[in-house]
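User: quick one
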Amino acid sequence: MEKLSRWVLMLGMPLAIWHSYLVGDAAGFMNPEFARIFFWHFPFPIMATGLVSAGLWFSWKYLKTRDQAWDIRSQSAHEYAMLFILLTLASGVFFSKVQWGAWWQNDPRQVSFLLVSTVYIAYFVLRSAFPDPDKRAQNAAGYALAAFLPFLFLTFVFPRLPQVESFHPSETIMKGRLKGGYALVTVELMILVWILTAWVYKLRARSLLIAHKLENNYGSLESPRRSDVNAPVVRRLPNAPSDGESS
Amino acid sequence: MYPVHNEDVILQVRGISKRFGPRWLFRGLDIDLEAGDCLIVTGKNGSGKSTLLKLLAGLERPTEGTLQNGFDNEQSNRSYCALDQAVFPALTVTEHLELAAQLRSQSPTPHSELLTQVGLQDHQNHQAQHLSSGLRSRLKIALAIQSQPKLLIWDEPGVALDEAGRELVAKVVKEQTQRGALILATNDPEERRFGTHALEL
Amino acid sequence: MPSSYKPIFAVFRKEWLTESRTLSGITTTGLICFVSVVILNAITFTTKLNPLVAAGMYWMVLTFSAAISLPRTFLQEEEQGTADFWRLFATPEAVFWGKALFNITQMLIATVLMSVMFLIMLPVKLQNPIAFTLNGLAGAVAIASTSTLAGAIAAPASNRAALSTAISVPLLIFLINLGITGTATALGEGLKSGENGVIGMIAYAIATTTLGPVVYSKIWKS
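Assistant: Done. Structure below.
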């Protein structure tokens, strides 16, 4: 499966990028050729949302099982979520400049993702405050659970608050006005970015798991044998009353 | 912790382990305590005595293993007393006892007998911040035995106590072994004599 | 909610007794609110405030005063070493509800005082007192629950005071926006369906007070 993903990425990504330059310029834009940033800008927030949701699930699993592997998965998911939040902002800022003439428009969707970024920067600040891995995992998982509520509201409710008006052409996508080559490239890149994300996430989680094992087993990937660890035994004292007398 | 259904069993521990990063403090520890048992836990500094007692008291989670109690209401039937355990500076002695009783959903009972037993009868309206460390230790003993628990877990009982305080420890130990079981972490030879079982970490 | 309310009120009573002897929490919150309104008054002076800007100022002051002072109920337990007392004698739900209830009381007092000063000292005109009151009260509940939870999450860290403020502000961001919608509408900003902000705030208050004990029960023991 992993091999297949790599082949799909190696062949598919250059083809999709090439295809994105073959489709005709979008109409109604100040710089139509730059409107192609949309092909990248569109999947980024979706990936970020998916990864934040995955991070929430892994955090919950950690709190249920107390297995460090779930915390490592949660950390990896949140790291890539943060990356996609920043990529969403960066591609949005670029789009804003070339299409609307200013780097920052105070567009509610721009602002909402900026606010979301502060919520998840705080996640990493919190992680760094706990040197003990168990406390770090536990409290970061608690925060991830608490942060999901503002994340949902900021992503889905904030852009619809009455005091804000968005430049984002939501209707173009929601009402199926994205057609032809543009729609095809959007779908192609959506799938490819999704595969890429899954692959790099897996690599990151795997490397963190190995680092965790090495750190916990004095540089070895194997856990110490039970006999290598102090296994104390309760012994009955000679002066103690017998079982019949004790209770 | 889960209750076990055997009237004699107070505590059943199976394969309990604790690790901090790469270091295992102990691994695969089994403990069975019945009414009348007194387990003495000894060991060098840093061997994990206090950590083990905190695990048994339910204050920390073990890395591996299970703990089962022979009773239902943990707040009332399991008590813990330790030197590093703090009390609320702004609350009086009586307010501490009232708070503990309310948290355990116990009906309010007069505390005068308990306060006399631990030697705090003249300090009941004093705030904890105005008590000496010895008197604070007595307050912690009062809180630990207030609910007449089936299991008392006690870390370094005699530390910070005077001669009368040590006599109080002996009395509480005797009463506790009649009522249930006791776990003491100590390196004091006098206190080790209370034990029916020993565990060296 | 735990089956018995007695332990919750025991935690609340302990907080109340401690606060009544030190007055540290309410004076901190009150002072931050008071100084902030005085500063806003000095800045705006004769300028007529747009309701949206005034609402923004109002919620910024409330949020920051809460983020600084409310997590204290959990932070001081770790500082004093009394966190184990609760773990021994109480359930996590009782501890969270008791402390949240105390913080809600404190926040309601601060919100009422702050609102009175705000309306008297700043050049704003109240158009819809019911929306203003409901929005403020629901906001106080939501802010208090969120800050209480942030305090519980940050308490075991060594830099707990700074950390609790650092994590509670991002958690409160959306709440500020909801609050601004409701308050601006109450101050006369003609927002389309602005009253939904008040409903949103009440929903958010319910969501945060429900989420708090669930999260706390998972993190209270290490």
